[in-house]
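Hello Y.,

Per our agreement to keep a running log of every chain we model this quarter, I'm adding this entry. I've kept the format consistent with earlier entries: sequence first, then predicted structure.
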Amino acid sequence: ERLPGVDIAVESVRVYPEGRLAAHVLGYVGRAEPDLSAEAAAYHYYMPAYEGRDGVERVRDEFLQGVSGGYLVRVDASGFRHEEIGRRDPWPGEPVVLALDAGIQRAAESALEGVVGAAVVLDPRNGDVLAMASRPTFDPNEFGKGISSEAWTSLLDDKDRPLLNRAIAGVYPPGSVFKMAVALAALENRRASPDMVFDCAGRYFVGDHPFACWRKSGHGWIDMRKSLEQSCNVYYYQLGLMTGYERIWRMADAMGLGRTTGIELPGERAGLLPDDAWKRRVLRDAWRPGDTCNVSIGQGALSVTPLQMAVMIAAIANGGTVYRPRMILGSGSDVAGLSATARNGARPGDTLADLRWSDTSLRTIQGGMLDVVHASSGTGQRARIEGVRMAGKTGTAQFVREGDARRHAWMAAYAPFERPRFAAVLIVEDAPGGGGLVAAPRMRTLMAAALGFEEEALAAGERTP
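Predicted structure for the entry above:
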């Protein structure tokens, strides 16, 4: 009032109290484009609003945004303000409820501390996404107050791409985590039995081309369950050729590989489930037995996202139901009926496929995954948690960068073994060691925290066991 011609306006700013936590899921906001409609044109001064630019902020912007208010005043040619002649009241945005568990999300991000990678935790009972982490990350609060051009350029130029949600948009060869799909294809199509054995001498020849096992001395004669525990490559070269790639492709396709999962987040990638038609179109060559060998151990042209692998592991954990991963439980008026119980296993999921695997197939695959963690020679024993029976599978996916052979470290797991409530996948990019050495200890950290939170919630009566 002491400064004629000056008005003070209060502007809202988006604040993320948890800072970087779940930044890739929540997304961020930016300045909206000016409203050029006829109604807005009646106003001489327009205060631009914010709009969702990524993550949940973007896909649920219509609920979170609300409706801007405004008022119309009469002024004379000198700018003197006479009176207010019209007003439009603002409407606040509406709530959006996510399936994320803040405690498990913190554990997932902690498990990735100091590395580049991603982690996903699903509820195998309905597909709810309990955690989704990607490293490196960013602080969405920088966007809420208007990010500087220097900070934005720094994010874009960072070679580790902190804005990329690796859980849904990072594509990688799955390595040995894919071997369960090959084993299931063989068993369900009766191309092999659980007690079928192959001899591993450290390598396998297709024609005159050798395909190596990770253990140069070989594994000797092993059956299917042992092949999972030991992650024997030579076993899966032979099993893949015996099964036939078309059957493997159909099984992988049924579990959702090669296409997006449909999660309500922007930027999801489909990966690649190659076949003969793809190879002829892209590489102008026919599918060969060597291609089947490579894909049978999760290499070759095959590429997946961590979320796709989590969906696959959740299906194995629950007995064959493929759920669409669910991040958003409700928004607007839908959230009123969402109790803690409904958000944790009791709320039905969206079924994409019911694969109805046989008991024999499930016992073999699940038993092999149990041995991965609990057998004395299991590749995932570093993930073992005292007093918890957990199934798992390690993977080491090889790739070439700048002419050098490198590797990604994977681990997939679910627990508790008898009544799974958590299905998790974790990947460390460009790792200094394989999945058993690098990813397994981090999976232990993640699963121990998830199970600990679960027990606390059960004791408080907040979850349906």
